[in-house]
Amino acid sequence: MTGFLDAPPLAFAHRGGAGTAGNVGIENSLAAFAHAYELGYRYLETDVRMSSDGVVYAIHDAALDRLTGSADPVATLTAEALDLQRLDQREPLARLDALFEAFPEARLNIDVKSDDVVEATCAIVESHDAVGRTCLSSFSHARLVRIRRRLPNVATSASRREVAAVKLLPRRLLRPKAVCLQVPAAYRGIRVITPRLVRKAHALGLQVHAWTIDDADEMHALLDLGVDGIITDRTDVLKDVLVARGTWKDPS
C-alpha cells in the first residue's frame, strides 16, 4: 500500500453501506463494514465521536436515539455504557481501534465529528501505523488545521472553506493542503460538482469524490463527468455500475 488514493474510480462504502440490504439500521458497525469488505470494497467511510472517558467510536450522530433508541448523547456515556448499546437491537457500536484491527488491508476515510475527538483519533491512526491508509475529513476548517499539524503526512479532504476557494479563486492563488474534494453533487438546489470544478480540481492535483450517491443513473452521470470516486450507502448498486463500466477493481 503506497498511499491513500489509488487510481480512479474509487468506490467508498459510506458507513459500511448503510442502505444496502442487511445493513439498514446497523451503519458503522463491524458487521456492516464486513459486508462491504466481502463485496470487494477497500475504501470504508466512517465517522468518529468519543465517549465521556475518551474511547473513540465509529458513529455519525451526536445522540443514539435514531439507531439504538437511547436519547443519551454519545459524549455523556462511558465506553462501558456504549458497549452495551445495540444498533437495531442486534449489533454493537464499533470502536475505531477495532475497525483498524478488523480490516488491515482497507483504507479508512474518517469524518472527525467534534473537536474533542481530534487528538484521540490521530493517536489511534498512529498506533496502528495507518497514516498511509487513512484520510481524515471534517466540515470544520479549524479542525482540519489541527489534524494537519498533528499528522502532517496523513491525507485529508478539503474543508468547506477550501472547497469554496477551489470554486471561486484563480488557480494561481491556490495551494491545496488536501488530496481530494469530497462534496455532494448538489447543495440546496445548486450544482456543486460541475465540469469546471472537476477540471480545476484535477489541474490542482486533487481528486473529486461525490457523496452520498445511491442512484445508478446519477453514478453513471458523475463518472462520465470525470468524478474520481463515489461515496455510497448502496454498495450493491455502485458495484454493479462499476462492473458494467468495466472499472470495478477486484481485490488482489
Instruction: State the secondary-structure class.
Output: alpha/beta
Strand content: 15-25%
Number of helices: 10
* Helicity, as a percent range: 25-40%
Profile the largest sheet.
Answer: 10 strands, mixed
Radius of gyration: 18 Å
Reported by name, the CATH topology is: TIM Barrel
So what's the CATH class? Alpha Beta
**CATH fourth-tier homologous superfamily:** Phosphatidylinositol (PI) phosphodiesterase
First-to-last CA distance: 12 Å
Report the count of strand segments.
14
User: How many structural domains does the protein architecture include?
Assistant: 1
CATH architecture: Alpha-Beta Barrel
Q: Key terms for this structure?
A:
alpha/beta; ten-stranded mixed β-sheet; globular; two-stranded antiparallel sheet; 10 helices; single chain; 252 residues
